[in-house]
Amino acid sequence: MALTVHNMSVKAGKDLKITGVPQINAEGFTINLGQGDENIALHFNVRFNQHGDRRTVVFNSKHAGSWSSEQREKSFPFKEGEEFKVYVSFNKSTFQIKMPGNTVSFPNRFGANKFMFIQVLGDVRIKGFKIS
């Protein structure tokens, strides 16, 4: 499954809500927020069994095609075949990512107040997508 949205403004102070269901036997899925494929301010990668990781959530950013240092979260609230809701909000310095039962902070390494690119990739079915 892939969902890519260009030219949809997500501004600081707004909430991005994504509702989805990971596929049965999912390897993983990714939510990206940024300016485009080569400039991703928030890379939110849920790994069921992917890239040598099991039941791990990885956060990162990519600037001009180069990845920065990862932040890993051992809390893993996702289950194959079960609906989840993820809320993302941000300001110039920090992203707040609310997952089921846990909220994680990740630095806004771009320092931007607005992003125009949203992408969801991988073994997930998107049921809802809302900016409020």
Which terms would index this structure?
Galectin_CRD; five-stranded antiparallel β-sheet; carbohydrate binding; seven-stranded antiparallel β-sheet; Jelly Rolls; Galectin; 132 residues
**Extended strand count:** 12
| Average pLDDT | 95
Number of helices: 0
- SSE ordering: EEEEEEEEEEEE
Would you state the CATH class?
Mainly Beta
Whole-number radius of gyration? 14 Å
**CATH topology group:** Jelly Rolls
Indicate the structural class: mainly beta
Beta-strand percent range: over 45%
Question: Low-confidence parts, pLDDT < 50 over ≥5 residues?
Answer: none
CATH architecture level-2 label: Sandwich
Pfam families: Gal-bind_lectin
Protein name: Galectin
Domain Galectin: 2-132
Keywords: Lectin
Overview of the molecule:
InterPro entries: ConA-like_dom_sf, Galectin-like, Galectin_CRD. This is Galectin. By secondary structure, this protein is mainly beta. The protein has strands at 2-11, 16-22, 28-36, 39-50, 53-63, 66-67, 71-73, 84-90, 94-99, 102-107, 114-122, 124-131. The protein has one domain: Jelly Rolls, CATH 2.60.120.200. 0% of the residues lie in helices and 68% in strands.
Brief summary of the model shown:
The chain is mainly beta and 132 residues long. Helix content is 0%, strand content 68%.
